Amino acid sequence: MPALPAIAATIALGLALTACSAVGPDYRAPPPPPGRTYTREPQPATTVATRGPFGAAQRFDAANVVEYDWWRNFGSPKLDATVAEAMRNSPTLESATASLDEAREIQAAQSGSTRIPTIGGRLGAAREEINGASVGQPRFPQTTYTLFNASVAVNYTFDLFGGNRRALEALAAQVDYRRFELAGARVTLAGNVVTTALAEAELSAQIDATQSMLARQRRQLEIARRAERLGTGSHAAVLALRTTVEQTGATLPPLRNRLQRTTHQLAVLLGRPPGDAAVPRFAMSDFTLPARLPLVVPSELVRARPDVQASSALLHAATAQYGVAVAALYPQINLSSSLGSAALTTGALFGPGSAVWSLAGSLAQPLFNAGLRSGARAAEASLQAVGANYRQTVLQALRDVADALRQLDADAEVLQRQQAAYSSARRAGALVSRQYGLGVASYVQLLLAEQQIDQIHVGLIAARAARLADSAALYQAMGGGAHP
Questions:
Q1: Using CA atoms, how far apart are residues 129 and 152, in angstroms rounded to an integer?
Q2: How far is CA 393 from CA 33, 295, 335, 483, 484, in A?
Q3: DSSP codes, 85-108
Q4: The model's pTM
Q5: Is 476 helix (H, G, I), strand (E, B) or coil?
Q6: DSSP class of residue 142?
Q7: Adjacent-strand bridge partners of 128
Q8: Cα(43)–Cα(60) distance, rounded to whole angstroms?
Q9: Which candidate, 147, 168, 255, 278, has a CA 20 to 30 Å from the CA of 300?
């Protein structure tokens, strides 16, 4: 067989056989979850409304898609800039991006070495000495010569049963997994920045309210001390008020500590050191409550959630790896050919009569290797485990949405009741204040009324912040922020 046709036949046959079917199951995406609801009870179209900040009704819109930049619905340019900075500077996203690049390059490297035949060139020289006795010619004189050679070799392992293609399929699925991991990191980062900014705003408001309450209690304590000095008050009243002042003051250090830790967390999310003085500070007035919230059906949710898609990619990879293990049970055929020349001088290396070529083939069939079948069974068990993990991921995604929906309903009702309690407490406090001015109510009654207003105000701040934070939780549960 002429040399060039042999090499060409090796390449052509190798490429043709890559189109053969592969053993093992073909991957099929799991069916989406049935149903169109997340909770047993029907989901109301809107939440209840109340007066005051963040008390508007929120509408759940089934036709509303989950925007990538969902945080803009909170109406805070400062928050928008903060999330954008985190997306630019986060080491977590940088690491996830590098992992995706690594997976792509591994796939490209493996694809280049297995999909097509390998071709290599060789150029060499060897100094040799032949003794006639060693070849049965004792009278042949001892000869020393230099042999020059140059050749091109082609090697290919036929992928008759698809083991190599399944391996490449698994690598492609790993690329998908890393891509969805990056998308999930974006979702998590955006959600963490928003919830941290909201927590900072809530803590600042609680500190301000507690400081106002403490200042009022100190004024009341000073009045009680004056009354004691004038003989119109008791020392017991002074001690009781001092106890109240100290108890209220004791709540400030933990609040300040939580605020500092929250600010440190926000700095790290932005890729800055915790002590950076330029980390933005947020107040409740920086935000507005989103009026419309997305509510995609479960079948769309599994396509929007990057964690579900990442789990699906792992299931795809496990399916392909099972095919690799099954293909190892079948024969492997290897074909190699080479074309070159050999001569005793460099001038004659490519001259007439110097050509050499070879064509070789081999078939390897495992006759007894118990480890191969155990490996196939292990790959099948791994596939079952990954499939179970996928189903658990879907269930957890559905639960995240169900919990967020119910929490938003509860938040609206809590805020409604807190707002009503605050309004009632203020009206009661105004009535007691008028009665105290007329001498009808005692100072103790006025003090209790004012303390009740302050305590309810702190709870009202928490209820308002909860509506904002749980709105962000629903966007995150819906997979918002996954794709730029």
A1: 26
A2: 12, 19, 45, 20, 23
A3: HHHHH-HHHHHHHHHHHHHHHHHH
A4: 0.83
A5: helix
A6: P
A7: 145
A8: 9
A9: 168
* Sequence-ordered alpha helix ranges (H) in 328-442: 370-437
Residue 136: which region, alpha, beta or left (left: phi > 0; alpha: psi -120 to 50)?
left
3-state DSSP assignment of residue 149? strand
Q: 445 with 35: CB under 8 angstroms?
A: no
Give, to the nearest 10 degrees, the angle between helix 370-437 and helix 443-477: 150
Residue 96 and residue 104: Cα distance in Å, rounded? Answer: 13
Same domain (yes/no): 342, 471: no
DSSP 36-88: S-SSSSPPPSB----SSTT-S--EEETT----TTGGGGG--HHHHHHHHHHHH
Task: Specify burial of residue 445 (Cβ count, 10 A radius: 0-12, 13-18, 19+).
Answer: middle
- Backbone dihedral region for residue 46 (phi beyond 0: left; psi -120 to 50: alpha; all else: beta): beta
Other CB atoms within a 10 A radius of the CB of residue 19 amount to 8
SS3 for 123?
strand
CA angle 46, 416, 411 (to 5 degrees): 60
Domain C-terminal end among 313, 346, 364 = 364
Q: HSE (CB half, 13 Å, CA atoms) of 72?
A: 6
Does residue 1 carry a pLDDT above 90? no
Inside any domain, residue 482: no
Q: Which domain holds residue 189?
A: 31-116+159-330+371-477
Q: How far is CA 444 from CA 33, 235, 318, in A?
A: 61, 14, 72
Angle at 204 between CA 201 and CA 208, to 5 degrees: 140
What is the Rg, in whole angstroms, of the alpha carbon atoms belonging to the chain? 38
Same domain, yes or no, for 295 and 146? no
* Domain shared by 378 and 457, yes or no: yes
Tell me: the pLDDT tens digits for 55-109?
Answer: 999 999 886 678 889 999 999 999 999 999 999 999 999 999 999 999 999 888 8
Question: For the chain, how many structural domains are there in total?
Answer: 2
For residue 484, tell me if it sits in a domain.
no
Question: Per residue in 137-159, pLDDT tens?
Answer: 666 666 666 666 767 777 777 77
In one-letter notation, the amino acid at residue 193 is V
DSSP conformation class of 25: P
Q: How far apart, in Å, are the Cα atoms of 114 and each of 26, 134, 168?
A: 20, 43, 9
Q: Mention every residue, 6+ apart, whose C-beta is less than 8 A from residue 224.
A: 233, 237, 238, 241
Cα-based angle 170, 372, 108 (whole degrees, multiple of 5) = 25
